[in-house]
Design goal:
The chain is α/β, with parallel strands linked by helices. It is built from five helices and eight strands. Helix 3 links the parallel strand 2 and strand 3.
């Protein structure tokens, strides 16, 4: 299972605003598609946490058809009706909670200050901030800007942050 957000396919603003390292929009889109398909297989589940693409319905459907995996959309602020109704999404919703290997996971396009189950170890996955927010405990930006322009697994996210070590008892 993979997570991603803020692909912004066919959106020239990301080259300027987010300073993505691609010469042009065609190179950007091709690189993101290649990086997605390099790690996602046809039967893998991918949760896209919003801001998928600009363009008309046909362009969005064509993009989804080129991307491997069983795609689920958690809507973002730039996802219009053409995106929500594009063939290729298995599910479309604004918010979702999952359990993955005993981890309770909250999915939304937006980062939460607090989230359901936060005090009981739940993990918050979000997009929208393009890797610019200061990390919080058990909160991860899954946007492509934060993960080398490719989807990421929960295990990779959890391994990316050092865990607190056990307290060492000092003897006099």
């Amino acid at each position: 299972m993979f997570f991603t957000a803020d692909t912004h396919f066919n959106d020239p603003r990301v080259l300027r605003i987010d300073r993505r390292p691609f010469a042009n929009l065609a190179d950007h889109d091709a690189a993101l598609i290649d990086r997605w398909n390099d790690i996602v297989g046809p039967d893998d589940i991918v949760w896209h946490l919003g801001d998928f693409a600009r363009g008309d319905a046909a362009a969005k459907a064509a993009l989804l058809a080129r991307l491997n995996g069983r795609k689920q959309l958690v809507t973002g602020n730039n996802d219009n009706l053409d995106t929500l109704e594009a063939p290729g999404w298995e599910t479309v919703q604004a918010y979702r909670e999952l359990t993955i290997d005993d981890h309770r996971v909250v999915l939304c396009h937006y980062a939460f200050r607090t989230w359901n189950g936060m005090g009981k170890g739940a993990i918050d996955l979000h997009g929208h901030s393009h890797g610019r927010l200061k990390p919080m405990t058990r909160q991860f930006d899954v946007g492509v800007d934060a993960w080398d322009y490719r989807p990421v697994t929960l295990d990779d996210m959890l391994a990316s942050r050092p865990r607190r070590g056990k307290a060492v008892e000092l003897t006099p």
